[in-house]
Amino acid sequence: MPQETPINEVERFYRQGLFHSLYLLERPLLLGQLRILNSLDRIEDKAEMLHKWGKIDKEELNQEAINILKESKIIIYSNTSVYSNLLPSFIPPSVGEIIKKAKAIKILIANPTKENEPNETTTLDQVRIVLQILSGRRDFTKKLPLDKTPYISFVFVRSPTKHGLPYRDRIKDKDIKYIDTQTDWVKETLGLKVIDVDIAELDVLDERIPIKYAPANLTKAITALYALTLRGYTLDEEGRFRDKDQSSSPVLIGALVNTIIEEQRPQAAATALFGYKPIDIAITLVHLANELKQKLIQDKSLETHIEQFYRAVIRESLELEDKELAQKLQIIAMQSLNIIFWIQNNVPGADKLKVTLAKDTMLTSDKGESYLDISEFHLIVASTGKEFTPGFYWRGSEGAKKLGEPNIRTDFVYDQLRFAARKDNVVMYIMDHGFIAVPAALVEITGKAENQISTIHDTSFTNDLLPGSLQLTSTGVGHLQAMPSKATQLSLIPTLDIKQVTEGEGIQFNILYDSKGNILEILAQYLIPGTWTLALPGYVDSMVNLGGLRFNDFSIGLDEETAKRFNPRFDSKHEIKPNPVSPYLAVYTSEKPFLIKQLDDALPIQWIKGPAQEIFGEKLSLLNLYQRLTPENKDALVANLIKSLPAIEEVAKPVVEVATVEAIKERINQINDLHNKALLVEAAMKFYAWGGNANKIVLELSKDIEVRISCSV
User: Fold this and answer.
1) Predicted confidence (pLDDT) per residue in 300-334, tens digit
2) Which residues neighbour 453 within 8 Å (Cβ) at sequence distance 6 or greater?
3) Exposed, middle or buried by CB within 10 Å (0-12, 13-18, 19+), for 58?
4) What is the torsion angle, in degrees rounded to the nearest 10, for the CA atoms of residue 94, residue 97, residue 101 and residue 106?
5) How, if at all, do strands 584-589 and 592-597 pair?
6) Residue 69 CB: number of other CB atoms within 10 A?
7) Number of domains comprising the chain
8) Which of 177, 196, 230 corresponds to the end of one domain?
9) Mean pLDDT of all residues in 131-151
């Protein structure tokens, strides 16, 4: 039988699609050089000749590239064609040594799909090849022990599923070959940390182009990883972040506390927190909040940075896809701020309060979960499940739905996509009642009947604006300052709310309607910290948040005669039906608030002053006042407020201007023009590591690049 013609070593490499080694050349090979190469049968001889002709030892590494590598915080080996795009950058002398010594976090993003390069390439192969050339070994045929730690910190690999289904099942008609991620082999063979990108959470693989990573989401994953590792965290074998010093324990919060307090970088801490898996964010936040509370007790000056952290958490929460988790995190952050406020204002036992996820120690009510741990606090104030009864009561939170559909203005939205996606995530404000024990003298008269008094209330606004909108948050259309009487069938019990603003700014509206829903009067008072204000009997009471508003209040049930001293038009026999459309809404733009008239027949606003501080006692807060109340001085307080009414005069000049709807719509158009305008960004100077100048290529490509910007509204 005729013998099969043997193939030489070069032919074998060619047929199998293998690489032996890689070289950089001064210029394309000349015809004579090609002839010389073709005349050589041994692969080693060809390699020696290419090395002789190569540029590797003839020029120094580009100095700008050296500086960038030394100063970088993150070095990313991007997913791309490994041999033709990635590896040539590592051939010059000292590249690997510079990267090895660099203090940057080094991330290799493994190719999710097979490139047009060697057959059967796996993630393990990609990592090995990169490590090999960085360590100065350019013969890819020899798998030698590798010094991996200095060159690669983390490996990003494709998650094999999307919502539990293999990608190949979703794209059966596409000729896409996914690379075997070999996560376990990468961990065990090379000892590297691997992040299996969970696309069910991050959606890193682009739905439209399933062969590529989605740049925006991949960027988020990288920056979150950087923030966490910078704070001293590492990945355990399950891919969960642990403290380097205690890798066997749950995620610790020492590094985050340090970021907030010592480094004074609360936003960075919040960003790091949201780098955790969703299941861990709430747990970590609870532990962190309780630790921060203890730090604050030791040093009251830390309040500013801790508050900034919680505000950053609230902002980050709005961007989550999970509505329930988003609202939970906002409430936890706001309750943490409440605890701080109560501690700073000497509320008895406030230092005993904590936040928690454990239902057995949590204050709950028919309104849901408060996330307040009262296991120690209950000895000071018992909890109650019923409003208007002595005890700590969770009054709940309110979202955008509280405004009522007619009062959510889509024409004030400048980012329709964000508004639609995040509106339901918003917690506008939360309400805690009875957090101060009812004074002994008031226990018998605490309730909602005539001449009775409520418990103490705290209302704190969590968000100022609806997402993607100029519209400010508020308590909605408001509620009538009167309660149905259980004693008689025909009357309403008028109520008087006494309030004091403790933080932020806002507007107190008192709107008087007749029995047909017609507006008779609109009173408004501009609120700043320390301001006292009243919700008058028979009026509809509404609070508008102009930024960070918090107020305390309690309510007193009046008899009809006393109510008429505040509101001569009050009639306990007439049921009031407020218009479901608020006459005025508030927006914020051009760095100040405006009011928008919603009802054509809405009366002009009468701006008034509030009660003077002297009525309540010099330098006395509402929290202090409530703790000193007795039935006698309660009645005296009401009498003094009646006497002071003539002094609550009208303010001559409107405090908050009224703008037209057309003016706000014009402003929306201006914002949209800015958001949608494509800006040409001149490319920065780019250099390949071996000194090749790619400026022309980059600048040519930049002509087709659009960079979209966001702007302050």
Assistant:
1) 999 999 999 999 999 999 999 899 999 999 999 99
2) 442, 445, 446, 447, 554, 555, 556, 557, 629, 634
3) exposed
4) 100
5) antiparallel
6) 18
7) 4
8) 230
9) 64
Residue 705 domain-assigned (yes or no): no
- 458 with 492, same domain: the answer is yes
Same domain, 460 and 353: no
Is residue 684 in a domain? no
Residues 448 and 596 in one domain: yes
Q: What is the DSSP letter of 86?
A: I
> Is residue 430 scored above 90 in pLDDT?
yes
Query: Residue 118 and residue 116: Cα distance in Å, rounded?
Result: 7
Total number of residues shown for the chain? 713
Residue predicted with more confidence, 10 or 258: 258
Identify whether the C-beta of residue 543 lies closer than 8 Å to the C-beta of residue 507. yes
Measured in degrees and rounded to the nearest 5, phi and psi for residue 172 equal -60, -30
Do 219 and 96 fall into the same domain?
yes
Range of the domain at 102: 61-230
**Per-residue pLDDT reduced to its tens digit, 352-388:** 999 999 988 999 999 999 999 999 998 899 999 999 9
Element (H, E) at 594: strand 592-597
The distance from CA 16 to its chain's CA centroid, rounded to whole angstroms, is 50
User: Is residue 379 a contact partner of residue 416, using CB atoms and an 8 Å limit?
Assistant: no
Strand partners, 585: 596
DSSP 469: B
Question: Does the residue 114 lie in any domain?
Answer: yes
CB atoms within 10 A of CB 190: 17
Question: How is 513-550 classified by DSSP, letter by letter?
Answer: E-TTS-EEEEEEEEE-TT-EEEE-TTSEEEEEEEEEEE
Domain of residue 600, CATH code: 2.60.120.10
C-alpha span between 289 and 353 (Å, rounded): 11
Q: 84 is written with which tokens?
A: 């033709």
Q: Please tell me the distance from the alpha carbon of residue 596 to that of residue 685, in angstroms, as a whole number.
A: 50
72 and 101 Cβ atoms separated by less than 8 Å: no
Instruction: Name the residue type at position 405.
Output: E
Environment class of residue 143 by beta-carbon count within 10 Å: exposed (0-12), middle (13-18) or buried (19+)? exposed
Token digits for 474?
């508020």
The residues pairing with 557 across neighbouring beta strands, listed in sequence order, are: 495
Left if phi > 0, otherwise alpha if psi is -120 to 50, otherwise beta: which for 648?
A: beta
**494 and 616, same domain (yes or no):** yes
Q: Assess contact for 554 and 638: CB atoms under 8 A.
A: no
Looking at the fold, whether 129 and 102 belong to one and the same domain comes out as: yes
pLDDT at 297 over 80: yes
Has residue 377 been placed in a domain? no
Q: How far apart are CA 453 and CA 447, in angstroms?
A: 6
